[in-house]
Amino acid sequence: MGYPCVLITMTTSIPAGGGKLNYGVGDCKRQGCRRSSWITSVTFSRCIQKEISWSRRVSKFLRIQRCSSSQSPITENWKSIRTVTSYKRDGSTKYFDFAVIGSGVAGLRYALEVAKHGSVAVITKAESHESNTKYAQGGVSAVLCPTDSVESHMQDTIVAGAYLCDEETVRVVCTEGPDRIRELIAMGASFDHGEDGNLHLAREGGHSHHRIVHAADVTGREIERALLEAVLMDPNITMFEHHFAIDLLTSQDGSDTVCLGVDTLNTETLEVIRFISKVTLLASGGAGHIYPTTTNPPVATGDGIAMAHRAEAVISNMEFVQFHPTALADEGLPIRPTKTRENAFLITEAVRGDGGILYNLDMERFMPMYDERAELAPRDVVARGIDDQLKKRNEKYVLLDISHKPREKILSHFPNIAAECLQYGLDITRHPIPVVPAAHYMCGGVRAGLQGETNVQGLYVAGEVACTGLHGANRLASNSLLEALVFARRAVQPSIDHMKSSNLDFSASNWWARPFVPMALGINITDKIIQMTKEVRKQLQAIMWKHVGIVRSTMRLKTAERKIGELEAKWEEYLFREGWEPTMVGLEACEMRNLFCCAKLVVSSALARHESRGLHYTIDFPHLEESLRLPTIIFPCSPVKGTWSSQQLHKQSKYLELQP
User: Which residue ranges does the record assign to the FAD-dependent oxidoreductase 2 FAD-binding domain (predicted)?
Assistant: First the structure.
């Protein structure tokens, strides 16, 4: 049985299951249409009740009613669980009070707090230190200077976000940010200080004040170090490395969808491990690898967003993909790297904040032509300026020059960047750095309220996987770690309350069919599938870069929609022809289904926005439209014909019924 498409009063909606674009105001009268061929399980909606805050709207969204399911009701009390290793009935099922998916700043900070009230499993895809947090160079923005103010930080955030930010969310984050920084310092995080003994505050693009707390140019790594040390010392937290999250485990409690844990694949032992938990926090990061060039680590394949979408969570603002203007362009280095990087090396925003100037290859400064703020303009403006230069001049990179600053200052502020460039023959104290835009951050994600809550009961989100309303149409530099810290902390109390009131029994593990590893296929077929999947991944990334990049058009987006649909169908046909079964799991295949899911959400969201705002720039609608200053909402909807990527694995019997 499907679920109804939920429309909020005074909305514009695209019920993709029905394949028509419908505009509804007040009574949701239908007036127009656009064919939507392959996102069959979502509804897009633009909320236009501007007087109602994001957080209040979300509170209403969290009560979305759906048809009841045939799955077992939630009964009997869950006994208190506080042991380190957790209760388990067999080696493949583990029980915890809290399951945290992701070991970046959001997941670790949350785990440390909820561990005071119960057992915690931190589930991470690779090593515990491998996350987007580790690669965050610039710092954390917070109002810590007497001449700065919360109002100023709010204004900078809202301007950078192209006025699509939720003001209440922005105020909460900017107000609570300084306390979150102080907590990190108390936990042992070491940030740079000036000669006066106070924190050294940097300035980055889009900021009107110096407010960036940093540890040289490796801030994320330092924060992660401090948090990981605390987590590993906590007896109530168990870290599960090399556990890839496959799908959330959901059931129905009346009209509510409830999350009761997650299935994972131990990528070292190839065993499927089921985690049953009272509360689940998604802190799994973004989806940078839907593009061929990204600053994100290899683990950023959109797993959390895709899992949440399949679990009927509301998704928002997926068209707003931030391309960092300045990733290191290997083609411009004196000595080329011998291996292709898995992720582009980031040249932090702080280089421009410290006076770095952008030039084309003729050493002509170009940013003043695009914006009066020049190199200090927000990222979307700078990225489009660079993109325009590259296309007009048919060049592959531009130059970022900081060499006019004192050598000692450069080396003290950017030691990691200096060392990386020097090993390829480039001395940044004497020569400019070759840079090019790269996919960097997803401003959209799983829609969350002010406490990180989602419309799925027991499921909370924090960090890049979440869409809280803070970033709007473009994220302000160094607001990402800030948002992760604030929302990880805000999700704690409601999580504890939900955990204490939860009712569940130990038979819950048997409510869902178990995924399994395709051992029976044999090594030859498995290797062929993996190789084919890697090629398909490259093809998807190429489509996204060519048609859904920094500058878009309706024709390009529709071409991407068609090509992605064809590619996904071809890939799935190949899998099943080779003997793959719908409940089989493998790392490469599961990552691929998540990449397909996220790519389709981005394309469909972009097609739904008929204006240019922030990170979404389309030549067919090149101007801002005040009437469209609204978030894009993707609601669950009855699937007409789902793909393997769009269905939870434990519901794959339904997928088989849909096949011709």
Answer: 97-481
